C-alpha cells in the first residue's frame, strides 16, 4: 500500500513539474513575441519621425505632386492610428505606407535638383536603413510567433496552453498585392 502511495505521489510531482516547466516556457515564448512586436514598433516610430522631414525637403521641389504627398501623409497618419491594432490591421496599414513612400521616391526621380540635394539624399538613406531594420524586425517577430504557436499547438504542451488560456499569435503578413511583386529596377 505504501509503495502505491509513493508511486502516485511521484506521478503527481512529475505532472506538476511538467506543468510548471511547460507553463514557464510558454510565458517565455509569449514574452519573446511581445518583445519582437515592440522592436517593430521602435522601427516604425523611427520611420514615422523621418517622413515629415522627408516631406518638407521634397515639398519645395515637388509643387505639382500634391496627390503623392497627400497619399504619404494620409498613409502615415492611418498607420499611426492603427498602432494599437492587431498584426493583420497593422500589416495592412504599413503596406499602404510603404507603397505611398515608394511612389514618392519614384516621383522624386523626375526632379534632378532634388536628387542632388544632400538633405534629401541623407533622409533617403536613413529611410532605406530604417526599412531594412523594419524588415529584420518583422522577420524576428514572425519567427517568434512561429516558435510560440508551435509550442502551444503541439502535444503535450498544448494541454497546458489550453488549460492556461494561451492564444495563438498573429503573423505580420504582407497584404498589399503590389508588395508581393518583384521591384522594377531601372538605371536610366
Record keyword descriptors for this entry.
single chain; 188 residues; mainly alpha; de novo design (two linked rop proteins); 7 helices
Entry summary:
With 188 residues, the chain is mainly α.
Protein described:
This protein has about 190 residues and is an all-alpha fold. It has one domain: Up-down Bundle (de novo design (two linked rop proteins)). The chain is built from seven helices and no strands. It has helices spanning about 1-60, 65-80, 85-110, 110-115, 120-155, 155-165, 175-180. It is rod-shaped. The termini are far apart.
Q: Which of globular, elongated, flat, extended, rod-shaped describes the shape?
A: rod-shaped
Sheet having the most strands:
none
In round numbers, the mean pLDDT is 85
CATH superfamily: LemA-like domain
Q: What Rg, in angstroms, do the CA atoms define? A: 24 Å
CATH class: Mainly Alpha
CATH architecture: Up-down Bundle
How many distinct folded domains?
Answer: 1
Q: In terms of topology, how is this protein built?
A:
Layout: H1 2-59, H2 66-81, H3 87-108, H4 112-116, H5 118-153, H6 157-164, H7 177-180
Helix pairs in contact: 1-2, 1-5, 1-6, 2-3
Amino acid at each position: 500500500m505504501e509503495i502505491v502511495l509513493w508511486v502516485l505521489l511521484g506521478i503527481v510531482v512529475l505532472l506538476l513539474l511538467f506543468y510548471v516547466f511547460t507553463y514557464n516556457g510558454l510565458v517565455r515564448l509569449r514574452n519573446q513575441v511581445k518583445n519582437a512586436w515592440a522592436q517593430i514598433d521602435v522601427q516604425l516610430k523611427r520611420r514615422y519621425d523621418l517622413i515629415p522631414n522627408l516631406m518638407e525637403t521634397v515639398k519645395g521641389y515637388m509643387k505639382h505632386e500634391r496627390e503623392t504627398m497627400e497619399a504619404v501623409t494620409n498613409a502615415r497618419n492611418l498607420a499611426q492610428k492603427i498602432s494599437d491594432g492587431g498584426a493583420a490591421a497593422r500589416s495592412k496599414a504599413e503596406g499602404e505606407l510603404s507603397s505611398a513612400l515608394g511612389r514618392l521616391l519614384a516621383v522624386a526621380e523626375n526632379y534632378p535638383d532634388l536628387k542632388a540635394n544632400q538633405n534629401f539624399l541623407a533622409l533617403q538613406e536613413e529611410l532605406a536603413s530604417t526599412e531594412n531594420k523594419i524588415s529584420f524586425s518583422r522577420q524576428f517577430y514572425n519567427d517568434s510567433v512561429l516558435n510560440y504557436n508551435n509550442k502551444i499547438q503541439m502535444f503535450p504542451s498544448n494541454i497546458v496552453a489550453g488549460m492556461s488560456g494561451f492564444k495563438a499569435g498573429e503573423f505580420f503578413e504582407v497584404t498589399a498585392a503590389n508588395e508581393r511583386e518583384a521591384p522594377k529596377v531601372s538605371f536610366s
